[in-house]
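Task card 7
Instruction: Convert sequence to structure tokens.
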Amino acid sequence: MVISAVRRVSDRIAAWSPRTKRIVIFLVLAAAFALPLRGLLRSQGPPMEEGFMLVFPERVLHGDFPNRDFLHLYGPGSLWALAGWMKMLGVTLESERVFALLQQIGVVVGVFWLARPWGRRLAMSCALLSLLFIVPPLGLTALAWVGAVALGLLGLGLTLAGRRRVPHAPELALRFAFWGGLVSACALLFRLDLVLAVGLGGLAATAGLGAAFRKRVLLGFGIGMSAYVIQLVTAGPYNTFKGMVLDPVVYLRGGRRLPIPPPWNGLDGFLQRSGAISPPKWPLPHLETSQQLFVWFFFMLAAVLFVPLVGRAAVKRAPDRFAARVLLAGGLFGLGMVSQGVQRVDSAHFSWVSCVSVALLPVAVFELLHLRRASAARRAPNPGRGRVLCGLAIPVAIVLLLPHFTGWSYVDFTAQSFGHHRIAFEIERNGRRFYYGRDDVARAATALLKEVPKVAKPGAKLFVGPTDLRKTPYSDAYLYYLLPEYPPGTYYIEMDPGVANAKGSRMASDLAHSQIAILSGVWTNWREPNDSRKFGSTESTKVLRRDFCLVHTYGRRFDDHKPLYELYVKCAK
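Output:
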């Protein structure tokens, strides 16, 4: 009965005109983004990550440079783009979140473009899967990784579009090749660690083509990468190398990695545990949150390997078939991203890999069925039905397998769009706002923000850090955004364990040259099975005790009743 109904619906859709199909697909994808949008725009963002993605572009607009004036672990491209965006629309939470939305749309459109050779219905299925994985993990935060993946997919799509035009429009193909290389380079300006994905996907997309096509791709790529000269000149080669390679790869890794695989009976990530205080109420039978994360890890790895292997088999069977080349290139692009899902095994990093590899599973499975039918020398009785079943069964199975991270999160944001069970509390100052997930923290921060202008004049340097400066696992960087008249007094606007609190770091000197210090006790109980538990340098604590006087404390933690925030000013000599 179900198969018959699917077949009837499939036949009716097949009878639509191409224009009608395009309009319907556009409306479906637009609705999928629109339903949770109001909830996403008014939800809590990660206080440090969204905080520094608000502060960094504003510092760029004021003439500061990444890795010279503030630590930035990724490429400068995302800051340049976001600074230009905010120059037009203003430095606001809303403009930052709209930029984040555009990045997410870029990822979904890129996946749709790659899956398009298998038909609109399968492509829409892949796009909706990508949306489920890329939207819920951190909400609308303009993180560089999402923008880099979007540009990487679009660059790969342009290169493949050029490949398709080589036989009948060689000049046009070369133009696509140039732009494919240029956009792929822009992806690396956002995140240099996407180089393996861009390289593998590009090699697969250009394999077997003439030297002219490959040279045109490399020309565009070289022009795009030349923008790194600006970074090297402004920050210096050593500062750039240390901030973008040594700090994230060598010094930071021990304080951020989590045991592999994730545990079956618990959550290791502090932020993951904080978000799981109120378990999702999914109406169907499901595994616990930690168990879903455990299953997701192995499922992600299987998808990362499965898609390029099917693509390789398809290319081997029909080297000139365009769809086979697309699947191999997309699969290898996803394979090149897998380090992101291994370096820290939590739902956000899994989502950033799954939005490509797992999202392409419907076309990979359909391609595998095609290969099996071809091997058996049998013709498919109804390819359209196969597309519908792959496009429906696989997404439904994934949502049922990982509901807390896909279906439930999406439904929850959609419910918040219509005013149901919002848990975000607004912190507002002089027209700037930020949302926090705890009412006690929001009230304490509001009281703190009212006090700062009473004890310091505009222009005084502001230092924001944790209560215990020997441990720097996280920072309430959003406070810099809400206090724009007080320029950051530290290089470590983003604070990371093993970096800000390392012996010989600039943090103690930065604190000594600041006039105001806000210390947060919100993250004092940070506990993860990694080096973030270790105490670092005591120099900053000595400077605080020697040079600063406590003005007031704000709020109390519910566990030990110690302050949520402490406000210090430079003591009079």
